[in-house]
Amino acid sequence: MELSFHGAAREVTGSCFLLRTLDSNKKEHQFLIDCGMFQGEHLCGGKNFEPFGFDAKQVEAVFVTHPHADHTGRLPKLFKAGFHGPIYMTHPCIGLSKLVLEDAHHIMKEEAEKCGSSILYEMEDLLNAFDSVKGVNYHEQLDIAPGISIMFHEAGHVLGSAFISVEAEGKRVVFSGDIGNDDVPILPDTEAISHADVVICESTYGHRVHEPVSERESKLKAAIEQTLKDRSVLLIPAFSIERTQELLYALNQILEHDLVTNCPIFLDSPMAIRATQLYRDFKEYLEFDESILKESDRDFFSFKNLRETLTVEESKKINDTPAPKVIVAGSGMMSGGRIMHHLIRYLSDQKTTLLIIGFQAKGTIGRKIYEGAKRVIIFGEEVRVNARTIAIGAFSAHGDMNKLTRWLNPEDGKIPKKVFLVHGDLEAKEVFATHLRHELKTEVVIPEFQEKYEI
Ligand SMILES: [Zn+2]
């Protein structure tokens, strides 16, 4: 069988892997695992607009690991290029992916108008793509051809996320998708890999070890206490899927058990509000702490202090609410969205706390503030950064070096014969590759973009 890498090769984003394999009648089949967008690129041109390095018409099916745009963002483009097969993903992943792609379309449309260029896909392409989506359950065996079967397994990264195993030509190949952090309070643990011959493994934090998850609640609680004491504003830029729901869950726990306060908490992101509703709708896919499991009909993402501001009018009214108040708004990297208006208003106040709970990519305002910038430019306006900035690393949605190594070294002792590292900066991959060669004594490859391997 032949494996080729059409994204996330020497970078984090753009996951898209093509597998060509023979069935038991020696007939060839081609399918894709993920078809993601390159992020951090100009949306008016660049790699997302280049033709695929394969013939989309020959691809029979796509298997999607999870909803993030860097795993789903080029699906509508695939239809434009002539693909007409089914797209498989878990049931919760369907609604979340649609939210993600509609949001990406909205942003791209604005960008395309600004630079007068064409758009990667139209709403019609997106709807066409979703007409072909088929929901699958974890552990449901998909026999796609004689002797070729596919299965989705819990990845513990976001609601409905999966790693995918492929059995073909007598081999078992596993695509990690994104592997979640340990002990995430609302998700099931990542399932163990079993007897994989080849693993295509993400390596976002393959070079790092995260702080313990227990740190998140104590730091969050301290930030709220300080905000109450100062009668000030706590700003939390948040990613709509997973991080927001983990944050709401943690806030709920803190307010329930440790802090009695009427301080309002605004969830000021339409996408996060909609994603949170999907988390409620698919509650059976989540896993809460054992101590509260009995309260099965409780909504852990709602509490009396929480105010969801869906419309622009509701959002504007946040300004009229006197401090202390907590504002959770997107985007997570402060590269757009409603958080920008709150930054303009509150960042120059030294009593404000800005709480960073996610990865900040190079070039974003979030990264500049995180690295200590004293002034930033927002919508052409210079804003002084006098606010106190705190970061909580334990909210990471990705497993670190220890977690990934343990996942690749299952208890049955069957270490994969070959590991391809994808979805990571080159530096992270090189550190992780050296570590894995030493720890697992297995072959580790860092593939190039569009490179083909016989496996
Ligand atoms: Zn992801």
Topology:
Blueprint (H helix, E strand, L loop, with lengths): L1 E4 L11 E6 L5 E6 L27 E3 L5 H4 L2 H6 L6 E4 H25 L7 H9 L1 E4 L5 E4 L2 E7 L7 E7 L2 E5 L22 E5 L11 H17 L2 E5 L5 H15 L7 E3 L2 H12 L24 E3 L3 H6 L7 E5 L9 H8 L6 E4 L8 H6 L4 E4 L2 E4 L3 E4 L9 H8 L9 E5 L3 H15 L2 E3 L6 E3 L1
Parallel strand pairs: 3-4, 4-5, 5-6, 10-11, 11-20, 12-15, 12-16, 13-14, 13-15, 16-19, 20-21
Antiparallel strand pairs: 1-2, 1-22, 2-3, 7-8, 8-9, 9-10, 17-18
Helix pairs in contact: 3-7
This protein binds zinc ion (ZN).
Structural overview:
This protein is of the alpha/beta class. It folds into two domains: 265 residues, 4-Layer Sandwich (Metallo-beta-lactamase, Chain A), CATH 3.60.15; 182 residues, Rossmann fold. The protein contains twelve helices and 22 strands. Strands 6-5-4-3-2-1-22 form a seven-stranded mixed β-sheet. A seven-stranded mixed β-sheet has the order 7-8-9-10-11-20-21, with helices on one face. Strands 14-13-15-12-16-19 form a six-stranded parallel β-sheet, with helices on both faces. A hairpin with a 2-residue loop joins strand 7 and strand 8. The longest helix is centred in the N-terminal third of the chain and has 25 residues. The N and C termini lie close together (6 Å). The model has no long low-confidence stretch (mean pLDDT 92). The structure holds zinc ion. The site of zinc ion has 4 residues, from loops. Zinc ion binds next to loops.
- Write down the overall geometry: globular
Strand order in the sheet with the most strands: 6-5-4-3-2-1-22
CATH class of the largest domain: Alpha Beta
Major pleated sheet: 7 strands, mixed
Distance between the termini: 6 Å
Bound molecules: zinc ion
Multimeric state: single chain
| CATH level-two architecture of the largest domain | 4-Layer Sandwich
Number of helices: 12
Structural class label: alpha/beta
CATH topology of the largest domain: Metallo-beta-lactamase, Chain A
Rounded to an integer in angstroms, the radius of gyration calculated over CA atoms is 22 Å
| CATH homologous superfamily grouping of the largest domain | Ribonuclease Z/Hydroxyacylglutathione hydrolase-like
Strand proportion, as a percent range, falls in 15-25%
| Average of per-residue pLDDT values | 92
Query: What is the helical fraction, as a range of percent?
Result: 25-40%
Which blocks of ≥5 consecutive residues have pLDDT under 50?
A: none
Number of domains: 2
In total, the number of strands is 22
